[in-house]
Amino acid sequence: MLGLLAEALDTSISVLVPIPAGKLRMSDLRVRAALNQRNAASRLGIGATTLAEIENGVKAVRDDLVPKIAELYGVDKRIIAEAWKRGHEHRETRAKNL
User: Fold this and answer.
1) Collapsing DSSP states into helix, strand and coil, what is residue 36?
2) Is 66 helix (H, G, I), strand (E, B) or coil?
3) DSSP annotation of 76
4) Which of 27, 48, 92, 94 could form a disulfide with 55 if both were Cys (CB 3.0 to 4.6 A apart)?
5) CATH (domain of 54)
6) Sign of torsion over alpha carbons 41, 98, 23, 77
7) Which pTM does this prediction carry?
8) Domain containing 63: what range?
């Protein structure tokens, strides 16, 4: 839906939902690429559950997937690694606080 709205307004999703670069997580990058989880997973050749686990920091992103995700999301490979790390750290912090 955000992709359609951004297109209708002739702007980008990042303008509609501003998240500082240092706080972006994997799911944010996917949304900025105007992809839902199921479509992104399909295009990456993995299951939606696997992508959800990667986005939530449960499962590490495989080295062979990093360039594919980077290309699909239109970002540098380094951004993928940093976003995954933030998601993983967020999950670890939440687990400690429970």
Assistant:
1) coil
2) helix
3) -
4) 27
5) 1.10.260.40
6) negative
7) 0.79
8) 20-96
